[in-house]
Amino acid sequence: MNSRQRRGVVLLVVSVLCAVAAFAGVLAVVSDARSQVGPKVTAYELSADVPAYQALTGAQVHRIRMPKRWLPDTAVRDLGELQGKIAAVALKKGTLLQSDMVAAKPELRPGQMEIAIMIDAETGVAGKITPGARVNIFATFPGKKDTDPDVSKIIVTGAQVIDVGKIKAFDKDTDAQRLSTEGVPITFALDAEDAQRVAYAESFARHVRLALVAPGDSAPPPDSDRTYTLAGDTGKTGAAG
């Protein structure tokens, strides 16, 4: 074997060793990637936008597979978790569905009934009232005579909200007294007496407003604070001074 042949053999051996090393490197990278990715599991992604407080159904999601180690602990793994749930916030198409994005839909207790009224969007809701919230319902009534002052009353305390509808324009033919141009239908779970109060206020009050009750606050306002007139407030201020 001459020198040229020997050099050829050496180059061939070196080429083979380089190819083996490169292949080993690829195998190492693939093995490392697989060890980092790990096994894949089932999760669910939204296939359409879901407005806040709307009931969630299986038709609004599709199943995906993704590495278990990348899946949040709160990810929904079973569609049964959506049973009776609503979107807690507005959800966008393509969002990975997680348990903290949904909430249980409020339900009626024995002796309660649903009643829905339109609340001014600008002054009565402000986007902060959601299903499950508790509110005090205020109504302002005109005086019985032209010379009598208007009266503001808390007509229901701790009313449970079970649904919040979509904002829509008022019918000016039937809601001419409304100052706002848009309203939101709010559905409450109330006993018969409170439902009558709310129905009466919607028909005869100049304004009906909601005040959100702080979570955990179960103490209703005292009777002395449930009726307000400007004259009465002025009298109290003068007495205090």
Q: Could you characterize the architecture of this molecule?
A:
With about 240 residues, the chain is α+β, with helices and mostly antiparallel strands. Helix content is about 25%, strand content about 30%. The protein has 2 domains: about 40-105, Type Iii Antifreeze Protein Isoform Hplc 12; about 115-220, no CATH class. Strands 5, 6, 7, 8, 9, 10 and 11 form a 7-stranded antiparallel beta sheet that branches. About 15% of the residues are buried. The mean pLDDT is about 80.
Topology record:
Elements (H helix, E strand, L loop, with lengths): L2 H35 L2 E7 L14 E7 L17 E3 L14 E3 L8 E8 H5 L8 E8 L9 E14 L3 E2 L12 E9 L1 H13 L2 E6 L14 E2 L1 H11 L1
Antiparallel strand pairs: 1-2, 3-4, 5-9, 6-7, 6-10, 7-9, 7-11, 8-9
Instruction: Let me know the average pLDDT.
Output: 79
Total number of β-strand segments? Answer: 11
Elements, N to C (H/E)? HEEEEEHEEEEHEEH
What about the largest sheet? 7 strands, antiparallel
Measured on Cα atoms, how large is the radius of gyration?
A: 33 Å
Secondary structure: helix percent:
25-40%
Uncertain ranges: none
User: Based on the structure, what is the oligomeric state of the protein chains?
Assistant: single chain
Instruction: Provide the β-strand percentage band.
Output: 25-35%
Structural class, by secondary structure, is: alpha+beta
